[in-house]
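pls design
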């Protein structure tokens, strides 16, 4: 059920409706929009008796939501969600495209700093890198754990980049929530429902990657799990699905971008690195992703990909990432979107002030 408030409803009236919903034993999710506030009701098993709510001051109508997802739906919130980050002007889902770049895994301080410096100069606003790596083989590099998170926090201070990294379980999620600016939930965990609920109780925005064989509805339901626990700051990410095609690692499903945008108010970005698995396909598919209307990109970059401990084959050289940025800037402009100019690296600002 969804309570749609009148455009001129006061905050007090919204609060009173939320209290009433909670009194009835349900959970109220107030979603302010550009035109009006809607209040999603979750926790109900059957139909909510809508009469009492309909009569309350400020209420326009109470509607039944027939889709399985409620809070992620545009029915609940018609205008796009724009994700904000504490203490930063960077957003995801607005006019600016979000560019996230960095190595697959944090391998050492030197490696991470070398790549971070290049992606910051090229204009990425976010640095990515796994401290906990979900690997097919238990004998492959598993990540540096908390040490990797500390390196990422240092990178934030040094380069002024926001940092994004994956949490693979409860324990790592708690740490990632402390150290990072955005918590990544990987493709393999997209239907780890207890982890999704835990992410729903975290403070930071969540980057939710599409499962390896997830349908659009399953993908949106995973986001619904997070939102149902009260975290409304979610960025969806298409990263390719498994098909019969073997010329790429996965098949990047760019058609899901407009499909998601039709149904949901949440932003969606594209990962052309895992989506193709091949370095020579990352730039063309990045161009296509921006053209199709994605809200950003997440791209793997490594200064020495032949020696990378994971995903070297799909990692761009920094020079290639520079070229990618130049190309996608031009495509973004055609769509009336932009990629902010690279901010001066913080350490340089400090030097200039000396
Ligand atoms: C990653 O981004 O490093 C990653 C492991 O991605 P995915 O979960 O999409 O495979
Ligand atoms: Mn990777």
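designed seq:
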């Amino acid at each position: 059920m969804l309570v749609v408030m009148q455009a001129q409803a006061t905050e007090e009236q919204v609060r009173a409706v939320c209290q009433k919903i909670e009194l009835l034993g349900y959970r109220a999710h107030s979603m302010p929009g550009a035109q009006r506030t809607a209040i999603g009701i979750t926790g109900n098993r059957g139909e909510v008796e809508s009469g009492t709510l309909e009569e309350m001051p400020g209420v326009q109508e109470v509607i039944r939501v027939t889709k399985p997802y409620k809070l992620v739906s545009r029915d609940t919130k018609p205008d796009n969600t724009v994700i904000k980050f504490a203490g930063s002007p960077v957003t995801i889902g607005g006019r600016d495209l979000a560019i996230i770049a960095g190595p697959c895994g944090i391998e050492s301080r030197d490696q991470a700093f070398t790549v971070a410096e290049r992606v910051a100069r090229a204009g990425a606003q976010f640095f990515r890198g796994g401290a906990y790596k979900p690997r097919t083989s238990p004998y492959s590099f598993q990540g540096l754990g908390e040490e990797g998170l500390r390196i990422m926090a240092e990178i934030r201070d040094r380069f002024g980049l926001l940092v994004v990294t994956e949490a693979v379980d409860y324990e790592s999620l708690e740490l990632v929530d402390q150290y990072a600016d955005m918590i990544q939930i990987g493709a393999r965990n997209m239907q780890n429902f207890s982890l999704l609920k835990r992410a729903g109780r975290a403070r930071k925005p969540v980057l939710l990657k599409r499962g390896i064989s997830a349908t659009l509805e399953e993908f949106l339901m995973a986001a619904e799990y997070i939102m149902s626990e009260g975290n409304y700051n979610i960025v969806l990410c298409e990263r390719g699905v498994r098909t019969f095609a073997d010329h790429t690692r996965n098949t990047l499903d760019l058609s899901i971008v407009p499909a998601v945008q039709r149904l949901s108010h949440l932003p969606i970005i594209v990962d052309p690195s895992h989506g193709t698995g091949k370095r020579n396909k990352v730039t063309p598919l990045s161009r296509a992703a921006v053209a199709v209307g994605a809200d950003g990109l997440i791209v793997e970059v490594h200064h020495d990909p032949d020696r990378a401990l994971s995903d070297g084959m799909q990692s761009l050289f920094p020079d290639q990432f520079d070229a990618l940025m130049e190309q996608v800037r031009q495509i973004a402009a055609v769509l009336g979107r932009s990629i902010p100019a690279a901010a001066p690296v913080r350490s340089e600002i400090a030097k200039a002030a000396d």
